[in-house]
Amino acid sequence: MGTRGTAEAADRPPKAVTRGNGLAAIMQSARGIFAERGYHGASIRDIAKGAGLSLSVLYYYHAGKQELLHALLEDALDDCRRGCETALATAGDDPAARLGAFVQATVEYRVRRQVDSLLALRELRNLEPERLERFVERRDALPKLLHEIIDDGVARGVFATPHPDEAQRAILAMCNAIAQWYQPGGDLSVTDLVERYVHLALTVVQHSPPPRRSRPKSR
Amino acid sequence: MGTRGTAEAADRPPKAVTRGNGLAAIMQSARGIFAERGYHGASIRDIAKGAGLSLSVLYYYHAGKQELLHALLEDALDDCRRGCETALATAGDDPAARLGAFVQATVEYRVRRQVDSLLALRELRNLEPERLERFVERRDALPKLLHEIIDDGVARGVFATPHPDEAQRAILAMCNAIAQWYQPGGDLSVTDLVERYVHLALTVVQHSPPPRRSRPKSR
Amino acid sequence: MGTRGTAEAADRPPKAVTRGNGLAAIMQSARGIFAERGYHGASIRDIAKGAGLSLSVLYYYHAGKQELLHALLEDALDDCRRGCETALATAGDDPAARLGAFVQATVEYRVRRQVDSLLALRELRNLEPERLERFVERRDALPKLLHEIIDDGVARGVFATPHPDEAQRAILAMCNAIAQWYQPGGDLSVTDLVERYVHLALTVVQHSPPPRRSRPKSR
Amino acid sequence: MGTRGTAEAADRPPKAVTRGNGLAAIMQSARGIFAERGYHGASIRDIAKGAGLSLSVLYYYHAGKQELLHALLEDALDDCRRGCETALATAGDDPAARLGAFVQATVEYRVRRQVDSLLALRELRNLEPERLERFVERRDALPKLLHEIIDDGVARGVFATPHPDEAQRAILAMCNAIAQWYQPGGDLSVTDLVERYVHLALTVVQHSPPPRRSRPKSR
DNA sequence: CATGAATGAGAATTCATTCAT
DNA sequence: CATGAATGAATTCTCATTCAT
């Protein structure tokens, strides 16, 4: 909550926000408060207060609480999808490499946008039905993509899992869960985290030859 | 909602409960509504209505909304723990068997008490801090237990995973997720589900010799 | 506003309302405040305060502001219609007598329920479309009835007006307007008021033989 | 809303106004919206939007909502009074002729400025007390004038009404009501309307010799 | 003339809870 | 066990208005 950006220390008036960037302040505050207390537990008043703004500005930028949540979620999803797409675009054709790229992108996203990840995981159901439907459609592209990667690996004989459905679900579940426990400042670096989860994923799909986590020039 | 009594007279108003089991009716209704809308999204009035009872009956049985949630969660946790303990009590000493028993108990629980599972997964944070602390302490016995099983297997050389922490988290995450997607009436029986998740778990910990899911006299 | 009933003076606690008759108090207060400030100008808070109750009781009795207005209007309309029906039921067959009865009922109603009259005249448009439609349908029975009386008189040759439509509108308009200016305590008694408006109405429809408003000096 | 400019380029956003007549556009929009939803039900934002202008333009021209309403009402009243004065100025000395002129002016006004008429009838009470008082004073010149005409006719023996007060109120009430039901495009022309209401008014005051609506068949 | 950003007061409504019976 | 009536705090949202540009 408190920990704002870097160069924002001394010279500000009672307002924490300078005129003109109200939107960003609100989004940021909403992210935190929605994540902390849940959609219904979060009051729009507190969000505004957290942004250092008056209650009503919120309505200048958004049509309401619901739309605010929606905006947050859409934004997060876009970022997540972009991450995967980029990763896969450079991963080549090998199923194991593709799976690795997918997992890496997902894990990194869960860490990079941990709060948004929690939002997407928990608060989705609070979208109005219509919004929800459209959102889920877009989101489901990701599990589907993962499934295709696994199916491809199985077809080519490099993934030996007898249960591709469960493998897909398991991989996603374990990656998603990261947002719930990972502590950025802790003793597990993101690089290591990624490496371990890629390993886990390859294990889950029973990749053979045994996943040599060699990667000669691992950054 | 669903479980109506047998001898229900036709001319009775929407009372879903026969005199005497008010408590059960309330718990049942609360389960459903809390799960559907979340703690803050659920109104105690709707819970009472869902139970076919008046508001005040609810207050006769429970001190308030918070206590109601707490009761639900405690009940669910007890059940979950009992399931694991029972399963492990008869599993013997073999790490693989113990892991299998743990997973089986967990999966079966997630299916048997799917709604409560969702509650425990999502609504925990709405417990008052004090309650939460006590609850989490008790709940954390389970991951810890799982961790011990894995560590034991690793020590004995039957689990080859280089990342026991991640393995433990992954196994729990994938089991927990079941509550979010499993459809009881669907084409995946609980027996099959359990078998697959046991397989998955053994795969995750890199159990060798290769997990023969033989079980000659599988029930 | 201030002027409550007769025997309600000394012995009451801080609350102006005794437990159990909240509904009546609210309706009474709403009548006054809606009439005084208009639907949108009246705040539900003030209505509650005027009733000596808390804001939320209002919602115990009514679904909301809109429904409150609706209840008021329906009640008023019922009373108005009943008045006319009763009057006409005993008026016999003579068009002049019938017109007299109609006017008398209307005028008396406007005086007896002056506040509700103002509401019906002014706040009708604030009913939601659906409610409005149903209401207007019922209300329009009255102008229609008046029109029939006039047509009948014209047909029988006792009303000489060349413009029955305008006559009907004029009679209604002038009767309705009474609610806007009549002062109960003033020097014009209701009896006189009625007599004058019956005379006016008969004049408007050009009733002949010349309306002998004789009644030597009844009462 | 309706009256768009003539040379309106196609590619322009929903600006209903061409630069320069902002004031008129605002007044027009306010008229419509105040009449439709009432003073308190009308939002100044919608008025601005209806005029195709930004909120602040509105504040450039008017000090606020209240002043906007006031301006509208004053304008309307001026027009109304001017109409009567002009009509009476050329009506000569005969009470019947004067009454006819008065009614004609009033009826024509109610039709010509139907919306403003509704405003004046309904929204007057929303003027701040001080404004209201001054306004009512000016407005009351009209009923007073009508009363004088009637009194004059009675004194001269050409109006036989025994109730000049009621006659005056009735005539005004019926004329005012026109704004509530008249439909400009309908099958009743303004000329006819005026003729009928002049007849009605003369009937109400019991003008004798019997109102010869002679005018053989003028237009 | 015109704008976009912001505010504070107040609107209706909901909700957990209590109390007398 | 059970009810109906009532409350007060909090919630989302709207609105007239202002201000810097």
UniProtKB/TrEMBL annotation, chains A, B, C, D:
Keywords from the named record: DNA-binding
Gene3D superfamilies listed in its UniProt record: Tetracycline Repressor, domain 2
Keyword DNA-binding: yes
Keyword DNA-binding annotated: yes
A molecular-function term among this protein's GO annotations: DNA-binding transcription factor activity
SUPFAM superfamilies (UniProt xref): Homeodomain-like, Tetracyclin repressor-like, C-terminal domain
DNA-binding region: 43-62
InterPro entries, per database record: Homeodomain-like_sf, HTH-type_TetR-like_transc_reg, HTH_TetR, KstR2_TetR_C, Tet_transcr_reg_TetR-rel_C_sf
Source organism, top-level taxon: Bacteria
Any Pfam family the entry gives: TetR_C_24
Residues covered by the HTH tetR-type domain: 20-80
PANTHER family named among the record's database cross-references: HTH-TYPE TRANSCRIPTIONAL REGULATOR RUTR, TRANSCRIPTIONAL REPRESSOR MCE3R
The protein's name in its UniProt record: DNA-binding transcriptional regulator, AcrR family
Species for this entry: Nonomuraea solani
Lineage: Bacteria, Bacillati, Actinomycetota, Actinomycetes, Streptosporangiales
